[in-house]
Amino acid sequence: MNKASRIFCPALITPKNAVVKPTEQLSRSQKLLTELGLVKSGSNGTYQIMPMAQRSVDKLIDLVQRNMQLAGGQKITLPILTPTGLWKRTGRLEGDISEFYMVRDRSGKQFLMSPTHEEAVTAMLATNSPISYRQLPLRLYQIGPKFRDELKTRFGLMRAKEFLMKDMYSFDVSEETARETYAIVSVAYNRLFQQLEVPFVKVNAATGMMGGSVSHEYHYVSPVGEDTLLQCSSCGFAGNSEVLDSQADSCPSCKSRDLKDVRGVEVAHTFLLGDKYSKPLGATFLNTCGKPQTLLMGCFGIGITRVIAAALEVLSTDQELHWPMLVAPYDVCVIGPKQGSREQPAAEVIENELLLNVGELCGHQELLHDDRKELTIGKRLLEAKRLGHPLIIVVGAKAVQQDAPKLEVHLSRGEKLELDLSEALKLVAEHSHYKKSLLKGSFQPDKDESKSQSVGHQL
Ligand SMILES: [Zn+2]
Predict the structure, then answer these.
(1) Structural domain ending residue among the three candidates 280, 315, 350
(2) 346 and 371 share a domain?
(3) pTM of the entire structure?
(4) β-pairing, 391-394 with 332-335?
(5) Are 292 and 156 found together in one domain?
(6) 259: CA distance to ligand 1 center in Å?
(7) Beta 284-286 vs 131-132: how paired, if at all?
(8) Which pLDDT value is given to residue 446?
(9) CA–CA separation, 208 vs 194, rounded Å?
(10) How far, in Å, is the centroid of ligand 1 from the Cα of 201?
(11) What count of other Cβ atoms lies within 10 Å of the Cβ of residue 109?
(12) Containing structural domain, residue 345
């Protein structure tokens, strides 16, 4: 069980009447994360993730890994530093390199602090080339920091200079099997985004600096998004306005003319790369006739820290964080009586019984006990609500009243219930059950992957 008194959560206390000079543009979720002590600003554009938010990051990593493994992924770790020579060979140092961090070692050799790892993983394959067709398809993924020297960092974790990514790279024998891989990973992405229960749209995308032929983006729709999406009000279809013909005045899917502009935060991106990297870097396999042939690649990214920041931005209010259920730092927060109150001795008996039972139902690690009894219930409840715990159970004066003792249960989004102990426990059990069903649930794959644009979860 976790005790609130022991959690390092350095809340930002701004003195009244203080003139706060914002150093960057804040979104409402970023403001709450900072004020509540979940995320701290490091140097310009970098962030320090504090223990409570780290729990959320770790839960998302677990969820992403589950889905990557269901898609046949194998986890690896590549160095953050990639020799710039590899990027010269693929031509990627010829464009705009102002966002790259470059460093030199003591011998003068130059490295990139990798913003992405196509070159590094392909070069690794090339050193083992040719591999046998029997080893293919190969789907390798990693989860680690990426670096981009953004001119304008904004909205905290949503656009930072260092961020956490899951990146998967696939290697196939043919265009056809590369497309199969693409479809399989896309199913995993759809499942993940459905499990997070934040409405998302999947749109056809430009391939940009990555190159390749097919590409999709997954977006959370939010006013702070940096991309403009064109969305159909009648069927939900959406496209990136970069890609959709700007003349388009009707929905390519249902022909409705009711299209509107919405802002999207890109949280994931998939690409079919072909041989753009494998050819110059010499990553090959031996085909069934024993002849070396160039590997065909795909790459698949998910912005881990960005998913959390953007999901909070979509779900939260100005006053309260609201988390996707599977990545909330804790499931249940229990608040006991105030030190020295009349009800304290009797209420603590109930509180202890509650803690024991709740811990068994949802797992002791998922239970936060706000044991700071020197604080009033009201103060702790306000903080718990701002932190957005899915279930908050208060053991106060009503818990010890003679007839029909009641616990106060606060659900995320303001709903308040008065329940007896067994009813409250039933609610905790239902919550855990629902989480399990989300993890196990079967989800609709894309109806037709070959249709280049499709809608994930209709808004
Ligand atoms: Zn439509």
Answers:
(1) 315
(2) yes
(3) 0.92
(4) parallel
(5) yes
(6) 8
(7) parallel
(8) 52
(9) 27
(10) 13
(11) 12
(12) 330-439
Residue 428 shares a structural domain with residue 350: yes
Q: How high is the pLDDT of residue 445?
A: 54
CA of 446 to the centre of ligand 1 (A): 16
pLDDT digits (tens, 9 = 90+) for 70-86: 999 999 999 999 999 99
Query: Cα of 151 to ligand 1 centre, how many Å?
Result: 36
CA–centroid distance, 292 to ligand 1, in Å, is 46
Residue 100 forms part of a structural domain:
no
| CA 225 to ligand 1 center in whole angstroms | 22
Instruction: Give the pLDDT confidence score for residue 447 in this predicted structure.
Output: 47
CA of 197 from ligand 1 middle (Å) equals 22
Contact 144, 164 (CB under 8 A): yes
Q: Measure Cα distances from 15 to 18, 19, 50, 355 in Å.
A: 5, 9, 22, 36
250 C-alpha vs ligand 1 centroid, how far in Å? 8
Residues 308 and 349 in one domain: no
The CATH number covering residue 169 comes to 3.30.930.10
Does one domain contain both 383 and 295? Answer: no
Q: How many CB atoms lie within 10 A of CB 122?
A: 28
Asked if residue 57 is part of any domain, the answer here is yes
Report how far ligand 1's centroid is from the alpha carbon of 231 (Å).
8
Q: How far is the CA of 193 from the centre of ligand 1 (A)?
A: 22
- Distance from residue 255's CA to the centre of ligand 1 (Å): 6
**DSSP annotation string for 312-359:** HHHH--SS-----GGG-S-SEEEE-PPTT-TTHHHHHHHHHHHHHHHH
The rounded distance, in Å, linking the Cα atoms of 97 and 273 is 21
Residue 302 shares a structural domain with residue 413: no
The total domain count for the chain is: 2
Looking at 197-303, list the stretches that DSSP marks H as alpha helix, in order from N- to C-terminal side.
Answer: 278-281
Q: Are 369 and 18 in contact (CB under 8 A)?
A: no
**Closest among 75, 224, 240 to 157, alpha carbons compared:** 224
Output the CA angle 266-270-271, nearest 5 degrees: 130
Which parts of the chain have pLDDT scores under 50? 447-459
How far, in Å, CA of 105 to CA of 119, rounded?
19
Between the CA of 256 and the centroid of ligand 1 the distance, in Å, is 5
> Rounded to the nearest whole angstrom, what is the distance from the C-alpha of residue 237 to the centroid of ligand 1?
5
Query: Cα of 261 to ligand 1 centre, how many Å?
Result: 13
194 C-alpha vs ligand 1 centroid, how far in Å?
Answer: 21
Q: How far is the CA of 264 from the centre of ligand 1 (A)?
A: 18
**Rounded distance from Cα 252 to ligand 1 centre (Å):** 7
